[in-house]
Amino acid sequence: MLKDMELMAVLPAKDIDRAKEFYRDKLGLEPAQTIENENLIYRCGKGTGFLLYRTDNAGSAKNTQMAWGVQDVEKEVEELRARGVVFEDYDMPGLKTENGIATMEGMGKGAWFVDSEGNILNISSLPA
């Protein structure tokens, strides 16, 4: 039943205005819908999207919360850096980045950044 339904990620934001500015200025995204001035729905490719909602709990997760599948990680990193996005560097067993990009065995490449609210976001190679 659920396998055929549209899926939407949900991200917390302590400051909706600051988050809206980050997603607009850094990622080039505009909300498709605003609900009660404190909840923003963004639409992305193939019917996907995410809800950004206001809560004081934002930024508490220490794991990847949302990811975009892209054709060319290096190109996307370059374009996002030009817009002011700062990519994380990791050096731990199984995950080491070089210039912000990790090559993961059997999974392609990936890069992580943190939004204005402390949410860890990712771009990764689309599966072959």
Automatic annotation (TrEMBL):
Q: Which PROSITE patterns match?
A: VOC
User: Which InterPro entries does the entry link to?
Assistant: Glyas_Bleomycin-R_OHBP_Dase, Glyas_Fos-R_dOase_dom, VOC_core
**One Pfam family, short name please?**
Glyoxalase
Domain of life, per UniProt, equals Bacteria
- Tell me which positions the record assigns to the signal sequence: none
Mind telling me which Gene3D superfamilies this protein's record contains? 2,3-Dihydroxybiphenyl 1,2-Dioxygenase, domain 1
How is this protein named in the record? Answer: VOC family protein
- Name the source organism: Arthrobacter sedimenti
